[in-house]
Write a structure and sequence with these properties.
Blueprint (H helix, E strand, L loop, with lengths): L1 H28 L6 H11 L4 H24 L7 H39 L2 H7 L4 H38 L5 H10 L3 H27 L4 H34 L1
Helix pairs in contact: 1-6, 1-8, 2-6, 3-4, 3-6, 4-6, 4-7, 4-8, 4-9, 6-8, 8-9
């Protein structure tokens, strides 16, 4: 019983500290110094460096989904609607979630490992001793870069996945190109695009908050860095699924 109470207490403390990290990150966006060079560097590392894996993941997802949808829907004589089902599925749900999970694994883990290594080698303490705010210098550029680059990566990934679906529809399912694009755009409403674009913004905030908080909180040397990195990926992934459910429920209720 005491252990359960202690674990629950630790959980509440972690949630409080994470909320504090989120509040600081948002507040420091508007306060100088702005570290523009660091922000651009992080945008390059997070966005450009992730482009290949995002394109590969989304393209093959579009290929597989189109193939699967086409064969299943052909049973009911609805194969021609593959494009419309695929575009809504990709834009509204699968694109934002899949690419955010990839970014949580690649970028979120990297941020936690980098900040954690700086914490255990006392580089963050040295920055404080020199009068540099580590949250402004380290957390703010990563927070802003994720906030800007993740929606862009999701938009690129969505287009890539739909192109993959178009390729399969034309070559394997014998659906004409004009019919595919006509149905893909006809059933894709503005509410779907809005839901698909608001999700990566929220997911970026969650990934940045979790990865920065766990990086700053690392204790116990290299073993602690490894544990924090694993925890960062797991916690970010769980949050992405929970937030996806909540956002989907809210946006569907609002339509």
């Amino acid at each position: 019983m005491k252990q359960s109470v202690a674990k629950f207490s630790d959980f509440l403390v972690e949630m409080h500290d994470m909320a504090e990290m989120l509040g600081r990150s948002i507040l420091y966006i508007f306060l100088p110094p702005f570290y523009f060079r660091d922000i651009i560097n992080q945008m390059y590392l997070i966005g450009v460096k992730s482009l290949v894996i995002v394109l590969m993941t989304s393209s093959f997802s579009g290929l597989v989904l189109s193939l699967q949808f086409g064969h299943e829907m052909a049973i009911f004589g609805a194969k021609m609607y593959t494009g419309s089902v695929l575009s809504v599925t990709i834009v509204r749900e699968l694109g934002p979630v899949l690419i955010s999970l990839v970014i949580a694994g690649r970028v979120g883990a990297g941020i936690t490992a980098e900040l954690g290594s700086m914490a255990v080698t006392e580089q963050i303490d040295a920055m404080r001793a020199l009068g540099i705010n580590p949250y402004k210098k380290l957390a703010k550029p990563r927070f802003l870069a994720l906030l800007i680059m993740l929606p862009i990566l999701v938009a690129i990934g969505d287009m890539s996945a739909i192109l993959g679906g178009w390729l399969i529809s034309v070559t394997e399912l014998n659906i004409s190109s004009s019919f595919f694009w006509s149905l893909s755009t006809q059933y894709l409403y503005l509410s779907d695009i809005f839901a698909g674009m608001i999700k990566p913004v929220i997911f970026a905030i969650a990934i940045a908050t979790v990865s920065c908080y766990l990086g700053f909180s690392v204790r116990g040397g290299t073993k602690g860095v490894g544990e924090a990195t694993t925890k960062s990926v797991v916690l970010s992934s769980i949050l992405i699924f929970i937030l996806d459910f909540l956002i989907t429920k809210i946006t569907l209720a609002a339509v």
